[in-house]
Amino acid sequence: MHTHVGTLREVSNKVHNAELKLFLEVELGLDLRPIALPDKTKEDILLFFKLYDPEKAELRYAGRLFVKSMGKPIEYLSKLNEMAGYAPDEEIELYEEIKFEPSVMCEPIDKKGTFRSSQLEDGDIVCFQKALPLESSEQYPYPDVPSFLEYVHNRQVVRFRSLEKPKEEDFSLEMSKLYTYDDVVERVAEKLGLDDPSKIRLTSHNCYSQQPKPQPIKYRGVEHLSDMLVHYNQISDILYYEVLDIPLPELQGLKTLKIAFHHALKDEVVIHTIRLPKQSTVGDVLTDLKTKVELSDPNAELRLLEVFYHKIYKIFPLGEKIENINDQYWTLRAEEIPEEEKNLGPNDRLVHVYHFTKDTAQNQMQILNFGEPFFLVIHEGENLANIKVRIQKKLQVPDEEFAKWKFAFLSLGRPEYLQDSDILSSRFQRRDVYGAWEQYLGLEHSDSTPKRAYAANQNRHTFEKPVKIYN
Questions:
Q1: 3-class DSSP state for residue 244?
Q2: What percentage of the chain reaches a pLDDT higher than 90?
Q3: What is the pLDDT of residues 277-314, one digit of tens each?
Q4: Fold of domain 252-340
Q5: DSSP 222
Q6: Contact 200, 241 (CB under 8 A)
């Protein structure tokens, strides 16, 4: 017996398995005493049998038999049927379970060939099942042993979360890693009671940040579930889903932009979702927006701005294609172009104005932004006192509060405080308005205005004005 254990350990070491497990089976007689092993010749093979039930998708251990190596499975079918509890003449199929890792290998056994010709040896595992007629096999997801073992090898419980609530578990589904893109969205749609699986959009999980990846999975953009779950060298079990109002293939041909429209006269911001073909221009977006918003004048012209951290970074040219405009990290703001801006004199300046306050803790001045930036026309020769009157009127700030405000010329973030008598037009260089401004007129005051937050996108921006959202 020691020799056999030593041999087993050698085999075990060859496959780098540190632990060797042995199972002892003792057969007891009627007197409950162990029965001696049957005489085993070189012609005898010990085989272990598992029974598969396609209807229940269950595989269980059924028993073991000694068979003659030159014998044929067909000679043992009645014994196997007895083992399974079937009628003696039930037609059954046999498979050899060769290996499970790293991949499944399970092959049919020729019932009329010898066990030796099928290369069956001591300790091999044979799985058997009822032979299914073709019409029955189509009604079971795993009609035979190989398909079931493949499923078990690749099954994965996936935890689904709504993209709108990415921290909350919603539901779990058991799936196969070999499921196609279509299989996955069909199962999700079925779970949600949705008729059209193409309206499901999935997003993968970032294992490092524990958040959804920034870009969703494109329609049929991956082949299998396993591709959806991989993140670099890690495998996740989380997917995020959205239910769209139009099919995903159609949506992918369109560009969706969330635009904050600032009404010229009313104290409100309205968020609109604009969806147009990717080849559309900014001009097309503004034309579409005009049909959705309330204008102060039917002939009013609109412009589209890029706002990031309370500064205006860009006025979009009307001819720019929208395909590459990114509204994920900054706000797209639309507004009417004031009449005074349309007829700028050669020495007038269009100045970018923003609100700021200072953090003077630790003797280190840091400018903190808040509030809504805006443009202001500064006429040639105009002094700060005159400009302050227009700013107070535009922002409707009470006299008592406005008296505390300071005004500064900012270049590269350094404030140079201004006097009422300072002429501003000479300080601002003439610049192309399409691009980031490096010079600003800064309004320094406390950040005391109550804010209303809105989530137009993943970046949270704050507006002092009331907000309405139209999707």
A1: coil
A2: 56
A3: 999 999 999 999 999 998 888 889 999 999 988 888 88
A4: Ubiquitin-like (UB roll) (3.10.20)
A5: S
A6: yes
- Residue 422 phi, psi dihedral angles, 5° rounding: -65, 135
DSSP string, 17-62: -S---------B-TTSPBPPPPP--TTEEEEEEEEEETTTTEEEEE
Taking residues 391-420, what's their average pLDDT?
A: 88
Q: Which sequence spans correspond to the domains of the chain? A: 42-143, 153-249, 252-340, 345-452
Which residues does residue 174 pair with via DSSP β-bridges, in sequence order?
157
Residues facing residue 428 across a β-bridge: none
Determine the Cα–Cα distance for residues 411 and 429; give it in Å rounded to an integer: 11
pTM of this structure:
0.61
**Tokens 């997003």 sit on residue:** 203
- Long-range CB contact pairs, 154-160, < 8 A, 24+: 154/178, 154/226, 156/225, 156/226, 156/229, 156/237, 157/237, 158/225, 158/229, 158/237, 158/238, 158/239, 159/237, 159/238, 159/239, 160/188, 160/191, 160/238, 160/239, 160/240, 160/241
**Are the CB atoms for 91 and 80 separated by under 8 Å?**
no
> Is-same-fold flag (42-143; 252-340)?
yes
Q: Indicate the pLDDT class of residue 9, thresholds 50, 70 and 90.
A: low
Residue 4 has pLDDT above 80, yes or no: no
Contact (CB, 8 A) for 130 and 90: yes
Strand 125-130, strand 234-235: pairing: unpaired
Domain topology for 42-143:
Ubiquitin-like (UB roll) (3.10.20)
Give, in order, the Cα–Cα distances in Å from 446 to each of 68, 357, 360, 368.
94, 6, 13, 10
Q: How do strand 230-231 and strand 234-235 relate by DSSP bridges?
A: antiparallel
pLDDT at 466: 63
- Two structure tokens written together for 352: 């970018």
CA 85 to chain centre: 49
Q: Which helix (H) or strand (E) holds 254?
A: strand 254-262
Whole-angstrom Cα distance, residue 52 to residue 65?
17
Helical (H) or strand (E) element with 187: helix 181-192
Q: Which residue shows structure tokens 């999707």?
A: 471
- Mind listing the pLDDT tens digit for each residue in 205-237? 999 999 999 999 999 999 999 999 998 888 999
Q: Reply yes or no on domain 153-249 having CATH 3.10.20.90.
A: yes
